[in-house]
Amino acid sequence: MSKIIVLMGAPGAGKGTQARLLQQRMGLPQISTGDMFRALLKTETPLAGEVRPILASGQLVPDELTIRIVRDRTGREDCGEGYILDGFPRTTVQAEMLEQIASEQGHHVIAILVDVPFDVLEKRLTGRRTCPVCGEIYNVYFKPPAREGFCDVHPEVHLAQRADDNAETIKTRLMTYQRDTQPLLDYYDATDRLRRADGTREPEAIYADIEQAVTGEP
Fold first, then answer.
1. Residue 76 to residues 4, 82, 121, 149, 168: CA-CA distances in angstroms?
2. Whole-model pTM?
3. Res 1: pLDDT
4. Which is the catalytic residue, given 3, 15, 129, 195?
C-alpha cells in the first residue's frame, strides 16, 4: 500500500533535509500547507475565493477549509503513489481528517519524527553562522570555521548570525513546537504509527532509518 508520510521535527532537527532526500530518492512529492495556499491564491477557483479573504485578514484557515485544500492537492496524479506532508496535520482534528483522505485515496499514513534533544537543537540554532557572500553555513559548536568569525572560502568576510537565532527566541520557538506537536505525537503513538529517527546523526544515517520505516510498513 502506498504511503502518506507525515514528517515531523522541531526547528533545527533537519526535517527539511530528510524531506528533500525522500522526494529525490523515492519520487514522492513534498507538499507543504504554505505551498498549497500560495499556489491556490494564484488561481481563480471558488476555493481560492474562500481562502483569499481569510489569509488577507491574517486569520487561520479553518480546519474544514484546510482539509478541502489538502484533498484537492493530494488528489492529483503526482500523488497517486503517495506523498510527503510538511506542516500538516497540525492538530489531532486535522489528523483525523487525514485518515478519511487516506482511506479515500487508498493510502496508509505513517508519522515519522526526526528526534533531537532540545539542548542539541539550541546549540544548532544559536551556533549557526552564515557567510553573506557564498551562503556557506557554519556552527560554532559543531562545524566552526578555521578562523573564528570568518568564512573559510572568503577569509576576509565576517560571518553573520540571523537575528532570530538568539537563545531567548530559540527557547520560545522550541517550547511552542513542543506544546503544539505533543498531542499529534500522542495521537500517532496511540495508533502505533509513530516512528522515531535519531536526528543527532549524519543525514544519511537518519535517512536510512526513515527509509526502513517507510518501506517496512505494511
1. 14, 11, 36, 48, 42
2. 0.82
3. 60
4. 15
